[in-house]
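Field reference: sequence -> structure
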Amino acid sequence: MKQLKITQTKSLIGHKAGHRRTIRALGLRRINHSVVQDDTPQIRGMIHQVQYMVSVEEIKGRKKEGK
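Structure field:
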C-alpha cells in the first residue's frame, strides 16, 4: 500500500479553526513535523483542505510490524 509523508510547512496562527483541527487530525504538531499516513481518500481530502500549509511526498509502503 502506498503511503504519504506529510510535513507541516506553515504556522497555524491566524488560520481557520477547521483547518487547525484538520492539521491536528493528520497528526501534525508543529512546523517541520512529519508524519506517515496511508494513502486513502479520506487522508487525501484532508490534505486538499490544508494544501497551502503542508508538503506531501509519496513513499513506498512500509511493512507493518507483527505481520
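Note: The CA atoms of residues 8 and 54 lie 4 Å apart.
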